[in-house]
């Protein structure tokens, strides 16, 4: 049996792009359904971004999503650039007319968005399978998928492909009109989560002959750090002791700064890639966030770009007279 549903905007993906879009549309009175192929627990525990830019922070506050971020997030007014054994502070606050960055992990943002959307009575269907789009050039595009062992046909006025870099939505734009630009970088980042107190009050970006290193944080108890490595390397080649030793070597200073160490609770190697597709709209299908463009994690930018995309998309859908509920 097939279950038939209808919504104004069918949103594929419960990452930052999809969740912010559903919440922004709700503020405009536009109804949406989010479908996500992973479980709620998995979505809310994937470790990714850590840095929120001022625009994202302001939007979360305006949307009434800022309460926990305000309590648990940490505002940084500057960053340190470290080279030749010396640190050089860049005062972001002074250089950007009082702006700052907020350290509040992506999975916490996701948890807040899911809770807020469900509290509003919004629908987020987790663990969907076999997602297929059709009729995207028409004014009644369709998303078909399996949910709870049932076939579902979700008729939409618009579809938002917020399904990340590996999603399916992008494939519905005919190859003949797609232009993609991509670049794979010849270096990767070995990223770890370290159970230890923070080693610094702000992020440290270190340049060293042995390669780049970054000291970031996730909470007062968990620190996030990266070291530049060969993107083809296998994480199995890196013992915890080697990683710590490499961090200490790359971060060394003349004033005997000490890295605070502890158990490594997660480690992986990330490849670095830039990618963008145009157009981001085809008929009644819109792409947003990583589905349309990715930048390497070096810039701490992707989540913020995803949020900026859907901010424009929500406004455009509201102004274009997307039927309201
Ligand atoms: P995603 O977060 O990828 O969400 C897409 C969702 O769609 C996923 O939940 C996925 O399961 C779901 N999906 C996929 N296919 C389907 C399908 N067929 N059907 C249904 N659902 C589907 N950005 C920053 O701004 N600041 C940072 O500090 C930062 N640090 C980073 C550090 C690392 C290590 C990495 C890897 C990334 C970092 N980023 C950072 C980038 C940021 O995490 C991404 O840009 C952001 O997650 C993009 O959001 P999105 O919603 O577009 O896509
Ligand atoms: C992170 O904490 O994951 C992070 C911080 C700063 C960056 C990139 C990633 O530039």
TrEMBL record:
Keywords: FAD, Flavoprotein, Monooxygenase, Oxidoreductase
MF-aspect GO terms: FAD binding; oxidoreductase activity, acting on paired donors, with incorporation or reduction of molecular oxygen, NAD(P)H as one donor, and incorporation of one atom of oxygen
Ranges of residues in domain FAD-binding: 7-319
InterPro entries hit by this protein: FAD-bd, FAD/NAD-bd_sf, RIFMO-like
Organism domain of life: Bacteria
Gene3D superfamilies assigned to the protein according to its UniProt record, in alphabetical order: D-Amino Acid Oxidase, subunit A, domain 2, FAD/NAD(P)-binding domain
UniProt keyword Transit peptide present: no
NCBIfam families per record: PRK08243.1
Protein name: 4-hydroxybenzoate 3-monooxygenase
Naturally occurring in which organism (per UniProt): Dictyobacter kobayashii
């Amino acid at each position: 049996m097939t279950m038939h549903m209808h919504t104004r905007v069918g949103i594929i993906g419960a990452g930052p792009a999809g969740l912010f879009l559903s919440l922004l549309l709700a503020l405009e009175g536009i109804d949406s359904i989010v479908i996500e192929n992973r479980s709620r627990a998995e979505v809310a525990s994937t470790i990714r971004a850590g840095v929120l830019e001022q625009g994202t922070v302001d939007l979360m506050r305006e949307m009434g999503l800022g309460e926990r971020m305000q309590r648990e997030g940490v505002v940084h007014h500057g960053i340190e650039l470290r080279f030749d054994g010396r640190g050089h502070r860049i005062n972001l606050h002074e250089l950007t007319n009082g702006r700052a960055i907020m350290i509040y992990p992506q999975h916490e943002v996701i948890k807040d968005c899911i809770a807020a959307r469900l509290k509003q009575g919004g629908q987020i269907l987790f663990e969907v399978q076999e997602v297929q789009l059709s009729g995207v050039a028409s004014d009644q595009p369709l998303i078909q998928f399996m949910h709870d062992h049932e076939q579902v046909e979700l008729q939409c006025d618009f579809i938002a492909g917020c399904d990340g870099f590996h999603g399916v939505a992008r494939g519905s734009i005919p190859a003949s009109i797609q232009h993609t630009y991509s670049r794979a970088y010849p270096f990767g980042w070995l990223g770890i989560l370290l159970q230890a107190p923070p080693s610094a009050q702000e992020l440290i970006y270190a340049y060293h002959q042995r390669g780049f290193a970054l000291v970031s944080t996730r909470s007062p108890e968990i620190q996030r750090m990266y070291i530049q490595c060969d993107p083809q390397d296998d994480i199995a080649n890196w013992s915890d002791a080697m990683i710590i030793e490499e961090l200490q070597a790359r971060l060394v200073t003349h004033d005997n700064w000490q890295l605070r160490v502890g158990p490594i609770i997660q480690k992986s190697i990330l490849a670095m890639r830039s990618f963008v597709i145009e157009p981001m709209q085809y008929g009644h299908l819109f792409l947003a966030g990583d589905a349309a463009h990715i930048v390497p994690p070096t810039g701490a930018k992707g989540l913020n770009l995803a949020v900026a995309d859907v901010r424009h998309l929500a406004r455009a859908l509201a102004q274009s007279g997307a039927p309201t509920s």
